[in-house]
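Researcher: Next sequence.
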Amino acid sequence: MKKLTFLIFHKDYEHFLHDLRELGMVHVVENKLNQTQSEQLEKLYMQWKQLSEAKKILEKYRDKKNPLPPNPVDIEKGYRLPREIEKIQANAAALTQQLQISKKERDALIPWGNFDPENISRLESAGYFIHFFVVANRDYNPEWEELYNAIVIETKSSKTYFITITKDRDIPKKLNLEAVKMPEVSLEQLNGMIDDLNAKLQENEEKLRRLTADLPSLEAAIAEIDSEIRFTRVQVSADH
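Model: Next structure:
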């Protein structure tokens, strides 16, 4: 008969025992942990999991054909890496969200062309109101050009994009249409913002690539945690 020893995270214990029974193992001896030992092992396990996840992330950014020269092993650096990676990824997530919003605004602006929103504000200060509308081609009424000084800007994908320039702020009600809310920046500015966001995302990826040089430090930290877990389990076994 072979004797096997397993280290199981307590949340997985019942499921693990069930799997052993399915495999035909009938005699399981459990060394009970006191509360302090259980908390210590759980803390070590969570730390091991964080370090292992960090290693998986960095390995994705490691150039397999031309890896960076490894930095000298620094276990303390290895322990700090998960938090450092988390900050970089959180920043990347925020940048990605901003990028999606900016691209959506750019797509909405493209049919209207590049114009300075400040010019719209100047016209409003002079008593003129510019409203932006989008309707299906069949719903556009050429009479609006005379009645409301409508100007067609673009006809695209079965839609007509037009503006009205009047001294009447209630044109949307008269046309029974909802005016399009335009971004407060120009198309040119949005393109610049998108380029800047893409550049920052590339910088974040480069930061992660540079951190791959610290994989040996991360692996050393994982090895140390493994050793602490084994030592703690040996202490428990010795107590029994």
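Model: DSSP finds eight helices and three strands in the chain. The first strand starts at residue 129 and ends at 136.
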